[in-house]
Amino acid sequence: MSAQLLLEDEENRTRALQLSSFIVEAPAGAGKTELLTQRYLKLLQTVNVPEEIIAITFTNKAAAEMRLRILDSLMAAANLTPPSQAHKQITYDLSLKALQQAQANNWQLIENPSRLRIFTIDSLCAHLARQMPLLSRFGAQPKVADDTSILYAQAAEQTLALLEHTEHGDIVKTALRYVENNAAQLTGLLVSMLQKRDQWLHQAQHEIEPKQLQNTLRYLIECELASVSQVFNVDLQHQLMPLARFAAGQLNTNDSIIRLLIDWDAPLTTHAEALPMWLSVRELLLTKENTIRAKVDKNIGFTPEYKSEKANFKTYLESLEVMPDFANSLAKILALPTFYTTLDSWQMIAALSKLLNLAVAQLWLVFQQAGEVDFVEIAQRATQALNDESDTPTDLALKLDYQIQHLLVDEFQDTSPSQIKLLEQLTRGWQTGDDRTLFCVGDPMQSIYRFRKANVSLFINAAQNGIGDIQLQRLQLYRNNRATPEIVGWINQTFTPLFAAFDDENQGAVKYRPSIADADKHNVNSAVEVHAILKNDSTIKNSTEVAKQHEAEAVIAIIKRESVANPNAKIAVLVSAKNHLKPLVTTLRRLHTDIKFQALEIEVLAGRQIVQDLLALTHALHHKADRVHWLAVLRAPWCGLTLHDLHALAGSNHYSTIWQLMQNDALIQTLSTDGQVRLQHVRAIFDEAFESQGRTSTSKWVRGVWLMLNGAACLWEQADVVDVQAFFSCLDSLDKRNQFSPERM
Which of 373, 411, 363 lies closest to 129, judged by CA? Predict the structure, then answer.
């Protein structure tokens, strides 16, 4: 079986270089970037100019890597240096032919790499908007704002200011009633929605019919309930009904749920109106953590005469434990929205939709006033530049239709509906057999950006139905070039049951795609070990912070064990989010200084001690009455007053500023001899600093004061130097944009 899949993998990699449109499923470690590089080099052999090929990625790093690989391949071909690795030979051969085409047409790709059109999705949109300033409605190209939160907040405040407007006042009043006249809360909601308006604007711009909304939600709820009912079937329900009547009376929950369970005498329907009953059953069978109740405990207690029912109920719960999908399936019900049968709530949604449209209009005015926009606005204007209100191609679309011959899209599983629409417009008018191609590569199992409207169902739909008028041939890669067979085998075995049983476009679910490792990479020392931190451990179950610390110590113990076994080993710690590393990094720095590590771009800059000292200095310089930060400055290493001296200085006077107290020579005499010397030295530096305030930029001023305080001598590690550089870089950036204020630090 493995040999057959490897053969299919090789055939599909060869087919992917043909002049046709494909969508390629490539698992982790399959060499997606190398395949895209080969495809790009192959296409260079067929075009009149390199600008006819456009490659789209999602990050600047990915775009830079692809450009570098292509240039490195062309330079290797120009220097006639064939690769030592066998799998690189295909890339080298393609590079030779691409270079011949480039030299024959005098493209000078190596000397002028900007002719390689490799964009991020944002930079492509900006490129399109710049070409047609009138169609994009930008006029002169605005700057992309570094911090858009201020602009969103301003737009939200201007929207609420329409309260007195004769035409829009009723909409604002209705929305305010929804939040009980809490204007701050409504402002915050509008800001959060404006940040992701590309996900809902195309829907909010249509007139909303409350009845239609109600029917749509009904359909979605009933689809989910139908899915759950396949797991929690009629037989299981019949077994539970008599037990539920006894259990409900002792259930530690609200009376409405108890009444529903006691009166339960028929199988549950999948109608939306039955949702409360489904929720009651979930409450009966699952814990707050959405796991099946392990035993009959104090939350479900039976009176003595019901001992047999108690035993039967426990047996029933145990039977559910062997059903792997039961708990996860039933837990989904809790996430379903409440279904309202009256239309009042739906009319509120219609009013909020109108308010959102007003907020978007106000945001455009704010953008015009500021001369800045966000990437969402650029993407929307690029779409407008390609398609006018009559849904016909614009001059830009016709121009691009002539220019673009081939599109390559990386990480296709992360595309959103608006980005799919952009691809449809870019390929509009393409026909089968005209030698123009669309090539999409991705891994549907890695679709993790649903929060920004990326949906794996888009990948499934594109594979089945194509994009626009373009039909895509589906290719599957299987070979994992990174891992050993032992690790790949464990991953296949472990993750297969965690994915859906089949691809489901409506649910946005995909089945697991197995990978195959090269047998030559077999390593008997390669293995996966699981070190479980159990929730029911009595030492950690009652405290999240204790649990995190317990986990950090367990990881450190593993690191030490592996370091002893193999002193030259390089160990990586991977987590799902940066904040998960905080307990580990903190423990390493405080208690295990013998373990050297790097945590680049992991630790929050403001959490580093040297940066906290710099923040205190910045605040103190800009606000003489800020006692907390002034005391922090005097406590910092460049001054180093003891707690006893700080108390002598400020402990008995809570009304004067610290700076005023520092001018009191009599008070200073009460400090220790060492404290007096330190304080007078710092006072002289601050006297000089305040005399020069306003004569230079904030960044240079603060840096100058820090250097005069001999702050550079207080850096003990290389990481401290990097942190200081990062701090002043941020300060300088705020300064240049005229956005610095101590409150934002």
Answer: 373
